[in-house]
Amino acid sequence: MDEALRADLLRRAEADQVARRALDAAAMAAADEENLSWLRQVITDAGWPGRSLVGLDGAQAAWLLAQHADRDPVFQRLCLNLLTAAVQQGEATLVQQAYLTDRVLLHEGKPQEYGTQAIARDGRFQPRKLRDPAHVDQRRAAVGLGSLTAYLASMAEQHAPEPMRIPCPACQATIEAWPPDSDETRTAACPQCGRVITIRPGD
């Protein structure tokens, strides 16, 4: 086992999670950018960091960094391909593969398979674009995931869904709106002056 690589993976994964628990967008972006370039080099040098190389916790950390490598969808797809091969060799888990599959598919403009990626909408979480919703729980069970309903309820318990809060460009009052998905444009009206604004992904 490569203990130095494992320790580095665990340290980076912890920094990732600290930034996300704090909902610190700047810290999240900084961690993701640094981890992206670092993980690229690790994979170039050593291949996918599976459990034999870095232990169960190190392999989980490697998956987490790949899951958040959103700035480079091509690299993230490469990670999924390598992770899929690692699953077949017993070096990674089906759950890790399911989460990364959904992330990659959505970035490629396709519906997700397992409903692991959700969006806050109307006071609750709901899955982002999803293929064949009627059979999603069967697909989830096949990889060791619980029901989608229970998953979304757990997400809401951990972090209550909240709308975006945007200053009105006309009167500076606060406009509350639920965020758009990656392929959506939404509108919201100012409760004070009635000004209607358009909200696009990334706003």
Question: Concise description?
Answer:
The chain is mainly α and 203 residues long. The chain is 52% helix and 12% strand. Strand 3 and strand 4 form a beta hairpin.
Explain the overall architecture.
This protein is mainly alpha-helical and 203 residues long. The chain is built from 7 helices and 6 strands, in the order αααααββααββββ. The chain has helices spanning 3-21, 25-46, 51-67, 73-88, 94-107, 136-142, 148-158; strands at 118-121, 124-127, 164-167, 174-177, 186-189, 196-199. It has a two-stranded antiparallel sheet. A hairpin with a 6-residue loop joins β5 (186-189) and β6 (196-199). α1 runs antiparallel to α2 (25-46) and α1 runs parallel beside α3 (51-67). The longest helix has 22 residues, at 25-46. The N and C termini lie far apart (44 Å).
Radius of gyration from the alpha-carbon trace, in angstroms? 19 Å
Number of strands: 6
Identify the strand order in the major beta sheet: 1-2
Total number of distinct structural domains: 2
On the 0 to 100 scale, the average pLDDT is 94
Distance between the termini: 44 Å
Judged by helices, strands and strand pairing, the structural class is: mainly alpha
Largest sheet: 2 strands, antiparallel
